[in-house]
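Give me structure tokens for this 541-residue protein.
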Amino acid sequence: MNQFINAKETLVTDAIDGLLETCGGALTRLDGYPHIKVVCRTDWDKSKVALISGGGSGHEPAHAGFVGAGMLTAAVCGEIFASPSVDAVLAGILAVTGPSGCLLIVKNYTGDRLNFGLAAERARAFGLKVAMVVVDDDIALPDLPQPRGVAGTLFVHKIAGALAEADADLATITEAAQSAISNMASIGKSLDTCTVPGSAKEDRIAPGMAELGLGIHGEAGVQQVAFKDAQNAMDLVLEKLAPRIGTGPYVAIINNLGSTTTLEMSVLAHELATSERAGNITHIIGPAPLMTSLDMHGFSVSVLPVDAVIMSHLHAPVDLPTWPGVKDIGPVLVSPLPDGLSPIQPIPSSNTKTRNVLEQCCDLLMAAEADLNELDAKSGDGDTGNTLATAARALKGALDRLPLADPTQLFRAVGNELSQTMGGSSGVILAIFFGATGDACASGKPIHKALLAGLERISQVGGAQIGDRTMIDALGPALSALPQGLDAAASAARDGAQKTAAMGRANAGRASYVPEENLIGHVDPGAEAVARLFEGLAKAL
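Here you go.
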């Protein structure tokens, strides 16, 4: 798998230098490359308790991305998923620890515990005050003697950071950190493992499955389950967390494990916010990539009970772009459409024949969804089937409120419905088509001529003509042949659609950006949809 790296041997140092070069001078590193990789605050004067965390790299922005006022003083970075050396940790301690001492925040992995622990012992031999807490928030494997430390570590960073910034002493900060560790819980879920640079990817999770409770280094989780959707995924995670969620208010971190898209994370946040299992979760941090696992396609949720004191620590200011802050979970706020945009609601009416025709059209488009997506993937972005099927489902659901007995108003109503539900250029084009068709009906034109008037209007507005490799290549011939009957229209539509396969250039739509070799031999998906509509109607009616 290709990755935007130079070499696995320099990956971590290159990444750290990239962070330093773009931080505006807020961070520095110790001069110990490549074995000592320690990132520190440039404004640090050793007057307060220092906070040091770290571990293996590959979890970015953790840990170096959280070095700054209000959070960490320094981060000690190891290689990918590997603990930093004792010397590296000791270098970090010696570099930032003053008379107030320092707190080491360590995740519960053997290498981290040993290396940070030995470094702490050596630092104490220098006369420094050093305390250490071990984060073990992962509840995925309840029988594990030493639970793993995962994204809940960020709670500790933030609470300890707020206290240190407020001049609290080492004992107070350590106690607060330990209290948070004792009360928080985390678990993750992923659709795939991560890709470690220089290593073959482990294909442990089969397509259609998801793994619950896997570790942030790609370790196997507690179980694999069939993947259904975002709602089910979040529900399973919250089910595992439920025994750890009491009656009081809680804050949740919703963490992107690496490659989950922003769109997906927002859907997952919605599912958390609306889940009955999350009724006592009143605040949220994220969704955001906070403690990732390289490119893992997954998420994790961490929960912590809060009171006014803890909330004040979580709300304390942090000048770091990586920290999303804590926010209330609230209802979706909806504002009315401005005047002029609210659609005029037609008066519903019944017509059995018209309803049957519309239902047939909707069913045909829904049945063709996968085929049209596959066809569009060869010359576009692979969503034609989705777009048309979504509109078809919405239109079918709206039949009871449409003026089925009034062709003029029906065409206009269909146009309005498609403009709201279809989206993209296709929705606009078809809204114009049906609107213009309705206007033509209102002027007294018969339906087949009104449809041709609608076609003329979209050609004027969109610029596409027959021969430009669009749906018009099938729709134009079909409407021209419609007076001879549906069979003739279907035959003309199919002939027009097939001709698009020989067109090496598209003059409209996304296909206009596609090279000739990707177009030749493939029917335009919009034209194919039109052909299937007329063929289906001819067969059914």
